[in-house]
Write a structure and sequence with these properties.
2 domains
Length: 261
């Protein structure tokens, strides 16, 4: 037994440490992927539970993010299309089970919505539209309802963020739509000098032919991918152990330790 230990470990310190490192990295990364999947499932479950709560009305009073986050909300007012912000580099959303080119680049159309009966503004994610492949500055044609209307959606802290170099446009032009990487709610409030809700409303309306797509994917999107990645990492750790063991046994046999025992 001592001879076997010497052959596998004592005389192969570098190989043993390397194998332990590979196994540690593989197991750690695998567990991390599993935790990511569990987190997504928990978030989706929490979101579904909050959506079952009574629907809030944005016109009733000024709601806080804590009160309204991930809740369904209705609002009555009118859009302010001249202050719209097109969020760039957003992939096309697909609901569960749908197929298509999810790598297609496009925009989220963020448009301020002035609530009826007051001066408060609510930012609305109206949906996704494809980007012009020839000219990024050419905005997609969409239709915006004129006058007062009722809308309904789900409250989120922000429409999602992408990596952005620098701090964006330091002096944006007012009263015209613009393209940005991310939406800064506090910055928009200061820029326009208006009072606004501390969250955004993602529209859930479907079947409206306005040039925008609102088939939002569930929060559990990607869970299967996390499980696949976890399997790959665990397989790497197992392969590292097997390689270390098999190479050690071969060396053990070559040195004739079996016959000595």
């Amino acid at each position: 037994m001592n001879s076997l230990f010497n052959a596998l470990v004592a005389k192969r310190i570098v190989a043993t440490v390397s194998a332990l490192l590979v196994m540690a990295i593989g197991c750690a990364a695998g567990y991390w992927q599993l935790s990511r999947a569990s987190t997504k499932i928990a978030l989706a479950t929490n979101l579904l539970a909050r959506q079952q709560m009574p629907i809030l009305n944005a016109n009733d009073r000024a709601w806080t993010l804590t009160e309204a986050s991930e809740r369904r909300m209705t609002a009555r007012g009118h859009y302010l299309p001249d202050a719209a912000v097109w969020l760039d580099n957003r992939p096309r959303p697909f609901p569960a089970g749908a197929s298509g080119n999810s790598a297609q680049a496009g925009f989220y159309l963020m448009m301020p919505f002035r609530l009826e009966g007051g001066d408060e503004v609510l930012w609305v994610n109206r949906g996704w539209a494809p980007r012009n492949q020839d000219n990024r500055e050419t905005l997609p044609p969409v239709e915006t309802p004129v006058g007062a209307l009722n809308i309904e959606g789900i409250v989120f802290a922000h429409p999602g963020k992408v990596y952005e170099l620098g701090s964006g446009n330091a002096s944006p032009v007012l009263n015209r739509p613009r393209i940005e990487q991310n939406l800064n709610l506090d910055g928009e409030a200061k820029l326009h000098g208006w009072t606004q809700s501390p969250f955004i409303l993602r529209l859930e309306e479907s079947g409206i032919q306005d040039g925008l797509l609102r088939e939002w994917p569930p929060l559990t999107t990607g869970v299967d991918r996390h499980y696949a990645y976890a399997f790959q990492w665990f397989a790497l750790a197992f392969a590292g152990f097997v390689f270390w063991l098999v190479s050690g046994l071969r060396q053990y046999k070559r040195q004739g330790f079996v016959n000595e025992d």
